[in-house]
Amino acid sequence: xxxxxxxxxxxxxxxxxxxxxxxxxxxxxxxxxxxxxxxxxxxxxxxxxxxxxxxxxxxxxxxxxxxxxxxxxxxxxxxxxxxxxxxxxxxxxxxxxxxxxxxxxxxxxxxxxxxxxxxxxxxxxxxxxxxxxxxxxxxxxxxxxxxxxxxxxxxxxxxxxxxxxxxxxxxxxxxxxxxxxxxxxxxxxxxxxxxxxxxxxxxxxxxxxxxxxxxxxxxxxxxxxxxxxxxxxxxxxxxxxxxxxxxxxxxxxxxxxxxxxxxxxxxxxxxxxxxxxxxxxxxxxxxxxxxxxxxxxxxxxxxxxxxxxxxxxxxxxxxxxxxxxxxxxxxxxxxxxxxxxxxxxxxxxxxxxxxxxxxxxxxxxxxxxxxxxxxxxxxxxxxxxxxxxxxxxxxxxxxxxxxxxxxxxxxxxxxxxxxxxxxxxxxxxxxxxxxxxxxxxxxxxxxxxxxxxxxx
Length: 456
Hints:
The protein has 456 residues and is an alpha/beta fold. It folds into two domains: 28-311, Alkaline Phosphatase, subunit A; 323-432, 2-Layer Sandwich (Arylsulfatase, C-terminal domain), CATH 3.30.1120. It is built from twelve helices and 13 strands. It is globular and about 60 Å long. Residues 1-26 have low confidence and may be disordered.
């Protein structure tokens, strides 16, 4: 017997009752339970398993040891609800009219929940879903802030389940007391786009505290899977909804805003200790879960399954690029981005605006420290970019040579070919996904196009 999408043997020991067996007999084996854990405002590499030695995340580190970790996972938007909409629909936010923060999921848009329920899955959601109160009703059981045990007690024991847990951590505001002992500010690694000050270090320590608190809740979910005897046939994935809530991260299309952790765990199907460096987009998540459940990819979904990649078996065509967008998030700042293994292109459609952090970042002690350091003339040249009165319309970065994305090569003659290639990739994606912003290049065979800048 094989699991759909995987060329791997599975045990005959079924966790489903005999009454449910006929409904799932098509693939020759019961589909797996699926658990999705998602943190709130959490950048790669801020887990121990990704190399952050200052943070305490034993449960997620164990998940990585027993499963696979993905080094290059990217969100579709550095904003909460728009990116979460992509996870549910497998589409770019502008495709489904969910590109603004707090926009509820339109009732006419199908999510991956509907085909799972049609397959017989019992679906549950906890904590932050952020697609509007009407969307919460799509779950068979929406537990809100209740204990996770309520789902395991209520679920039908003769059916597979999908469980969504949207943690609030490490979203702001921050305060002392999230974990005991707290993380030491002196041990924080300060990213180059932030000044190394006492306030920034204290802020980072609070950020680490909340990630550690969230990790303990992930451990509780794994404990419940084992207590209820369903761990052996459960696919668990963990990721973040967008980047860390710090200036030049969350709300931007620089890597600290769109590059997030991703872990996958499935005993007997995903080999322990796997490390993958292929590009993964969040639009790929729902396609992968449907693949695991033996459900074909819906035509509208723009992602691709990486189930075979996670398992290290079967065929997989790697992505050449991932894409991201930012629109309204407490302020209007339309941005589009394309990222390959080596290059990043950012299209600022409103370049006359200066950098403006979202309100939760604007109220942080890190932003206060940046303003103070700027007034005192103590920001370095790279950090002073946040203080500029405007931005270039196009930003091109060679990520091999400049991983912190400080040196814009958009007008570099030596990078003209790379610039042309990235503009074509980004424009083609904007065409194919029905973007409301004007692409810089038309599709092949279409007249009337020209390179950015276009009239906006």
